[in-house]
């Protein structure tokens, strides 16, 4: 089983990250995001019913989007996520045993790292892209600075991206951007407004393709 989702990550340049929403809201979110053209959607495992949401999304959006698990902190969480249907794994940290598990099983993993040492360690362990986190705190100048010596490692910049600033993320060297709350307005989730989420998603997809 070869790892192909990193190619989709580098092509689409976006990952949607969903945290702390209900199963009902997840139906709205999933439909809106896929309608808007988002191809990679991640549910963090500290979301209640995360495994059910992953399974629901796999069933609903098969062929349209790939579904992953986020906040994967150890191998048992990785195994449970894959059993629920996760097609890729994302973590906030570099855990070599989690990376090793994913690589052995042919599952794309994008571990979270902050320092050059962590980024290189994750890449050397087999991660084909590394999540730069927490991007909102580190900022664009930090991304630009570490890309200079590490330009061979694709970075998924995660945190703080909005429609207004996403172009600066790409300009500074982000291979892809992880999108959180900016993609899913709370009021749209609560009211079940699929159209509003689809419009927002489409705007981000267009920004990523510029």
TrEMBL record:
Keywords: Carbohydrate metabolism, Lyase. Gene3D superfamilies: Aldolase class I (3.20.20.70). Pathway: Carbohydrate acid metabolism. PANTHER family: 2-DEHYDRO-3-DEOXY-6-PHOSPHOGALACTONATE ALDOLASE-RELATED, 2-KETO-3-DEOXY-6-PHOSPHOGLUCONATE ALDOLASE. Belongs to the KHG/KDPG aldolase family. Homotrimer. This is Ketohydroxyglutarate aldolase. It comes from Paenibacillus silvae.
